[in-house]
Amino acid sequence: MPIRVVIGEDDVLLREGIAGILERAGLEVVARAGNAGDFLRRAQAHRPDVAVVDIQMPPGNSDDGLRAALELRRTRPETGVVVLSQFFE
Question: Beta-carbon neighbour count of residue 6 at 10 Å?
Answer without folding.
Answer: 27
